[in-house]
Design brief:
Length: 660
């Protein structure tokens, strides 16, 4: 990677991991075969001399040593996915019935959901369950859901089973009546019971009357998720506050500074993703589209690889990206490609071909296509690896019908396909430096704050948040509500000051050399933040004993006295004025007392009380002192956890799809 990086070998490893993250995958072997065929001299002197992505992609299909490997490999790209199976669905349903009879409703629900996800379309396989595998699975699951008090979800299954031609319509309307009553939709309950009464035989009407008279109550899930909002929006960045300003300088690119004073705790950005992808290991626990936790999932009619939390999410996915990705899911996973590479594919498949061609013609108007790629720093060997990935993804689009081509055996791109390939290659470069991990906070049933941990579930690109630079002592924190990213200030930010987030290494946890290596290798820059230039200590290496400071009270004086002071009234070495530190020392004491009070609210699980207390304490600290200060930084971490508590939070559940 050259001498400009702290550790060129580590940088190369980091870069390759953004293409293939699974060591068992085949993609990097495909790359190495191609590189071996063309040779280092050609890579450095011919490929390395190319100046645009169109040329880089085309030469792979024109230079014979490269073409022979590329065409041979891509010609063998085939659909590989786990098909729905009536036999598997039936077996899972029988398991669910066994657990239901034994009273284990949780396991019964899990197996019924597996049965739903593995079931083919109604009538597709008439030799198993008379073609009613999906109907029977939904029908059985609805009874389990009713027993669990999940009446809204049960109602959805019953209604779908009716559409899928369930035979016992009288029982279906009886169950619907019970569900409507439980969710307090009494008019619909009355209509459903009346229909059931007309369909039931005389000897079963007394049982129906008992259902009508009985009280049912929906199992209400505690939902602390709150979607915050930006009060006064930026005219050019509608997901952000008007208090921020985007600037651009040579050597720094674009970055964000405060236009006005931003208070601790203030919401700076609430942004939906431009594109997002769920991690494959979360396919069985989270909705493939919205990332919600699965309780009663629905599946794709073609594949059993993915699950959706509700029909609406399934239908959105099927009408856009999933219809092109569906039959290649196992191929994508088997290639070992990174989630970043899959997100790159998603940026294409979520749009129509016509829309992407318009984007290609007007890329300068698209915010996401103007983000940093570091193309001027990218070595030829790295460039060719990404170009080979672009060719692989382009081939999947060809085979999936994205281009509507008739000659699927010919992998040589048309001019139109080369244009989409250019977009892919750009995205593979851009996402390396601009994507964000999406996480949920996993908690224990006993305590929702102590012992909680962030768990990575997916990746997304947020065009506004991608403009924020890094600081090892960041001014903001992020958390997620669904797929939306929320950016809050965790310390006061003055006008003109950089609004920076953190790309991973925080000074309190990782020493300077470790941070510099990580940032250089992963993001290709040398951090020059204050924590780095002053080499602030970590929690484990000196932060505990780092001297506390107190600000000179003279307006605009930047001097800080080291505590403890011998006399609270003294001459300032910088402004030369005789000053009293008494008030600032008192304010520091109040700040520290508020921090301790907030720490106690972790144990009592009262973030709603702790947030304003921490906001005030951190604001006060930066008014009278300066970092580093151990308790303040712990307070900022607690503030992050308090804020995240209103976002994606989950007590772990067992996955639904089987591991077959």
């Amino acid at each position: 990677m050259g001498g400009r990086f702290h550790d060129p070998v580590y940088t190369t490893i980091c870069s390759e991991k953004t293409l293939q993250s699974n060591d068992k995958g085949f993609f990097m072997q495909f790359v190495y075969n191609t590189l071996e065929s063309v040779g280092d001299d050609w890579i450095e002197n011919v490929f390395g001399s190319l100046t645009n992505d169109n040329e880089r992609l085309r030469i792979l299909y024109e230079y014979e040593p490269a073409k022979s490997v590329i065409v041979y490999t891509l010609t063998h790209v085939q659909e590989i996915y786990r098909k729905n199976s009536a036999d598997v669905s039936k077996a899972r349903r029988h398991e669910a019935e066994k657990y239901f009879r034994n009273g284990d409703l949780e396991k019964s629900l899990m197996f019924y959901s597996q049965s739903v996800l593995r079931a083919p379309n109604t009538g597709e396989n008439i030799h198993v369950d008379d073609g009613l595998s999906l109907t029977l699975s939904l029908w059985g699951r609805s009874e389990v859901l009713m027993r669990l008090g999940e009446y809204s979800l049960a109602l959805r299954d019953i209604q779908t089973a009716l559409k899928e031609n369930i035979t016992d319509k009288a029982e279906a309307f009886r169950r619907m009546g019970i569900c409507y009553k439980a969710i307090n939709e009494l008019n619909r309950a009355r209509v459903s019971f009346n229909i059931a009464a007309k369909l039931l035989p005389e000897n079963e009407l007394e049982s129906l009357r008992n259902d009508i008279d009985k009280e049912y109550k929906e199992n209400k899930h505690e939902n602390r998720r709150v979607m915050p909002f930006v009060t006064k929006k930026h005219p050019d960045y509608p997901n952000a506050t008007k208090k921020m300003l985007v600037k651009e300088e040579e050597g720094f690119g674009r970055f964000v500074v405060a236009k006005e004073h931003i208070k601790t705790g203030e919401v700076i950005v609430v942004e939906p993703p431009h594109a997002s992808c769920l991690l494959p290991e979360c396919f069985g626990t989270n909705c493939h589209h919205c990332f919600e936790r699965l309780i009663s999932p629905v599946g794709c009619p073609e594949c059993s690889n993915v699950a959706f939390c509700k029909p609406e999410c399934r239908d959105i996915a099927l009408s856009s990206y999933h219809r092109f990705e569906c039959k290649f899911i196992d191929l994508l996973i088997g290639s070992g490609m990174s989630i970043l590479a899959h997100t790159c594919l998603r940026m294409i498949t979520q749009n129509s071909l016509e829309k992407n061609l318009k984007i290609h013609e007007n890329r300068s108007l698209e915010q996401v296509y103007s983000l940093c790629t570091n193309s001027s720093l990218r070595p030829p060997r790295d460039f060719i690896q990404r170009t080979i990935m672009a060719a692989f993804l382009l081939r999947i689009l060809q085979k999936s019908g994205y281009f509507g081509r008739e000659d699927e055996d010919n992998c040589i791109p048309t001019d139109v396909e080369f244009k989409i390939g250019e977009l892919i290659l750009f995205c593979l470069q851009m996402l390396q430096f601009n994507a964000h991990e999406i996480y949920e906070t996993r908690i224990t049933p006993q305590h929702r704050l102590r012992g909680s941990r962030a768990s990575y579930i997916g990746v997304a690109i947020y065009p506004t948040v991608a403009l924020f630079n890094h600081d090892c002592y960041p001014g903001v924190t992020r958390y997620f509500v669904g797929k939306n990213i929320v950016i809050n200030a965790v310390r006061p930010i003055s006008p003109g000051e950089l609004i920076a987030e953190n790309y991973g290494p925080v000074f309190t946890r990782r020493p300077l050399s470790d941070r510099q290596k990580s940032l250089s290798g992963r993001y290709w820059f040398t951090c020059q933040c204050t924590a780095c230039t002053q080499d602030w200590p970590t929690y484990e290496n000196g932060l505990e004993t780092y001297p506390r400071k107190i600000r000179c009270p003279t307006q605009k004086c930047s001097y800080f006295f080291t505590l403890p002071v011998q006399n609270e009234t003294m001459k300032c070495p910088r402004c030369k004025k005789k000053v009293s530190l008494t008030d600032n020392i008192l304010q520091m004491k109040i700040c520290e007392e508020q921090l301790q009070a907030a720490f106690e609210l972790v144990e009592t699980q009262e973030p709603e009380k702790g947030i304003p207390l921490l906001n005030n304490a951190i604001e006060l600290f930066h008014k009278v002192s300066t970092p580093p200060h151990k308790d303040v930084h712990i307070g900022q971490e607690v503030l992050r956890s308090f804020l995240a508590d209103s976002g994606n939070v989950h007590v772990c559940l067992k996955p639904y799809p089987d591991s077959e």
